[in-house]
Design brief:
Length: about 575
Amino acid sequence: MNAFSGTGIRLHAPAPGWSVDADVVVVGSGVAGLTAALRCEAAGLRTVVVTKARLDDGSTRWAQGGVAAALGDGDTPEQHLDDTLVAGVGLCDERAVRTLVTEGPGAVRRLIETGAHFDETDGELQLTREGGHHRRRIAHAGGDATGAEISRALVEAVRTRGIRTVENALVLDLLTDSEGRTAGVTLHVMGEGQHDGVGAVLAPAVVLATGGMGQVFSATTNPHVSTGDGVALALRAGAEVSDLEFVQFHPTVLFLGKGAEGQQPLVSEAVRGEGAHLVDADGVRFMVGQHELAELAPRDIVAKGITRRMLEQDTDHMYLDARHFGADMWEQRFPTILAACRAHGIDPVTEPIPIAPAAHYASGGVRTDLHGRTTIPGLYACGEVACTGVHGANRLASNSLLEGLVYAERIAADIQERAAAEGLHARVPVPVPQPATPEHPLMPPEARFTIQRVMTQGAGVLRSADSLAEAAAQLGRLHAEAASALAENGKTSEPGVDTWEATNLLCVARVLVAAARRREETRGCHWREDHADRDDLNWRRHIVVRLNPDRTLATHTTQTADFPATANPQEQ
């Protein structure tokens, strides 16, 4: 079999030993990926879902708070729009937000029709409130297990419909034809199922729904699999990414001790929405007076408030006090969080919860238009991997699941329209002989931990020119050392999941740091201590990055805050 390749940079990997054909391949099994797959399959398209672990192991199942939509009495899409634009601090694409809030209520109702069960009282949805929202508009399930319920319903629907799935598969690279149009993906199946090893799914439409990249930092709410694979794949293929500097740090993550690494337990914003208070060790509510909404200010403001108080008091955590809830409310409304706290020796019923900010959500990602189309014809992106323009500089709480729903449906509709208008013609990937020696180095597995610590120290909640320069230098050394070793002896780390993930993490880390160095202001969740003010004159605009063939970065800043077009629709 020929070795398939795109025209961009490839991960060093064995040649594909098997392939399957489809009309659409969806990479990812969270709310965005499974919604896109269900809609495509319903339209009669041959659909394959590829996921890195099991179908229900993505980031969606960890979502506690819920789905934001104008579903309550007196609420309107316009009010939801206003709250989203305020949270996004001048960088939201208003067209994208209007699409989200207008189509959102219908998308939630269709999710319910698919089988998701949300908490109700007397047949009406229970709605709660979270940071940045002026109304109760967050629908939740199982108290604080919304993501798990959504994941359950969508996975059950996918299995009931018999959609072909490839589990335990790490996507590697995009395949393209001789004209640069999407032709499928290569992937590595980790010893499970019908196929093992490296193979290919050949399809003229690829939907990236790979989730986030929180594992680029030492402490994150993201699962172990969130290593930025989709963003890295898109960059290697030549796609543009935007706004990657805007990484949201969730204000209230259970503090497990200084130096805790890996996935950390989240304490949902809904706990504050129900009346919990942020306090320091003396019990002082330090967010009062900092913002009209106090603890319910947008996440960037709360995370900064917590970090400032920690710096003032030379400590590494603050507290969330919800003792006044009582045992019944904790057990009925927040059973998941209660169990997580108690598992770590903390009882929220009788004591404040120690918390600290941790990496949570990437507001930027692969740049798309209102139909989820990227700058590569046939390549789509939705969910956290995408930058639709909805979130701007800071995502409004619980807009993420809604964005996944709405834009997945729009992607499926666009692919269906393409199929009806001209057919989804199979593309023939460009065959490229397997090189005798690797063209680009793979990072050793231990580089993952070095990257995480560099990013946490230099590009965390609080950034500066000096910290970012040091982070860039250290990441650059990692890249240069691996490249030099390859050039000198023709060898690199052995291909495998650990080395591919470490290589992806280095790729997204370098882009994130480059964008953060370029943005010399404080805006949303990008906090520069050396540029403490927001600068609309110079920086109310987007930073767009591409990866050059030699792996250097091509970075430019848009001239306005308008979200630039991805491509001529006819080219898609």
